Amino acid sequence: MELNDEMKALLKDLGMALHHALTKDDQIQNITDKIKGNGYDIYLIMEANIALDRREDNDKGRLFLHRPEDHLEAEDIKLNPFDEKFLLDLKIKVEDE
After folding, report:
1. Of 53, 48, 58, 45, nearest in space to 12 by CA
2. E strand segments, 14-67
3. Where would I find the H helices in 4-97?
4. What is the DSSP string of 8-31?
5. Nearest alpha carbon to residue 23 among 33, 11, 13, 12
6. Which of left, alpha, beta for 7 (phi over 0: left; psi -120 to 50: alpha)?
7. Which of 25, 49, 50, 52 gets the highest tally of CB atoms within 10 A of its CB?
8. What do you get for the CA distance between the two ends of the chain, in Å?
9. Beta carbons of 84 and 90 less than 8 angstroms apart
10. C-alpha span between 10 and 33 (Å, rounded)
11. Average model confidence (pLDDT) for the chain?
């Protein structure tokens, strides 16, 4: 998907806002201070995957957040055509129930 300059700028702003949120959060600051107080340097390396899916309607859209500890039931998972193609490319067959 080709992104226009506005979308590229918005994604850059999102990255900066996430970085700011992590570095300025009081709870994170307290924990990292304790770790540093125990004689350790901290190197935080995070990977954020941001997926965009252009909608054809004029709805506002939704933000989907997924944490590793979230457990989804099979009926909670909705696949779009891109998801289905990706799984098929990996030789994973999705069966409708």
Report:
1. 48
2. none
3. 5-24, 26-37, 81-89
4. HHHHHHHHHHHHHHHHH-HHHHHH
5. 33
6. alpha
7. 25
8. 31
9. no
10. 32
11. 78
User: Measured at the alpha carbon of residue 41, what is the angle toward residues 35 and 43, in degrees to the nearest 5?
Assistant: 105
For the chain, the structural domain boundaries read 5-89
Q: What is the pLDDT, as a whole number, of residue 92? A: 75
Q: What is the identity of the amino acid at 33?
A: D
Tokens representing 81 are 């055509």
CA distances from 30 to 35, 37, 78, 79 (A): 9, 10, 39, 40
